Amino acid sequence: MTTYYGLLSKIMTEISQVLSSVDEDKLGKIIDKILNSKRIFVLGVGRSGLVMKGFAMRLMHLGLNVFVVGESTTPAIGKGDLLIIGSGSGRTPSVVTNVKKAWEYGSAIISITSNKHSPIVEYSDFTIFLLAPTPKVKTGNFNFSIQPMGSLFEQSLLIFADLIVLMLMDKLCMTSDKMFKNHANLE
Asked: What distance in Å separates the CA atoms of residue 160 and residue 11, rounded to the nearest whole number?
C-alpha cells in the first residue's frame, strides 16, 4: 500500500514539473493585459471551470472588473475586454464556441491549456501551456500522472492562477488585508 507521504511527494513533483515548464517571458505581458483590460471574463468547464471561478473571485478581491461566462449577470463581451480560458484539452465544444465568439466581438484572449494543438490557441493573444496529461490529451512533459483523469492539470491551473494573483498583488501594491475588504459580507 502506498503511503500518504509517498503519494504527496509524487503529486508535488508532478505539479512542480508542469509549472516549471511555463514560459515566464509571457507573464509580464499577461499581467499588463489583465491590468489594462476594461473588463475580464473567465471561462472553464467542469473542474477547470471551478478553478476559473476561484480565479475570478481573487481578481474581484483585487478590485478588478471580472465576470464568469455563463452566469446570469454576465454582460456582453466586446472590444477592450479580456477573456481568460482554462481548459485542459482546449477542445471542449462550448469553450471553443465561446472563444470564437469573443474573438469575433473583438475581445483579447488568453488561454491556459495542455494542448498545443487546441483550436483555441489560434484565437488567443497569449497561450500558457500547462503540459499535463488529461483524458483527452496525452501530451506534455510526461504522458502519465499517478492522479486520475485531469487532476494534474486542474491542480496546476489553480496554482498558476494563484501565482498570477500574487504577481498582480505586487504590481498593484495590494495586500491580503486590503483584498479582504472586497470579500463578500452577505453569505
From this structure: 16
Q: Cα 57 to chain center, whole Å? A: 12
What tens digit of pLDDT does each residue of 123-153 get? 999 999 998 887 777 654 556 787 888 899 9
Nearest to 58 by CA among 45, 83, 40, 73: 40
Beta-bridged to residue 129, according to DSSP, are 113
The active-site residue, picked from 14, 71, 122, 154, is: 154
d(CA 122, CA 138): 20
Q: What is the per-residue pLDDT for 133? A: 80
Query: The whole model's pTM is what?
Result: 0.93
CATH number of 18-178: 3.40.50.10490
14 is catalytic: no
Tens digit of pLDDT for each residue in 30-41?
A: 999 999 999 999
Nearest to 150 by CA among 68, 42, 45: 45
Closest CA to 150 of 88, 93, 85: 88
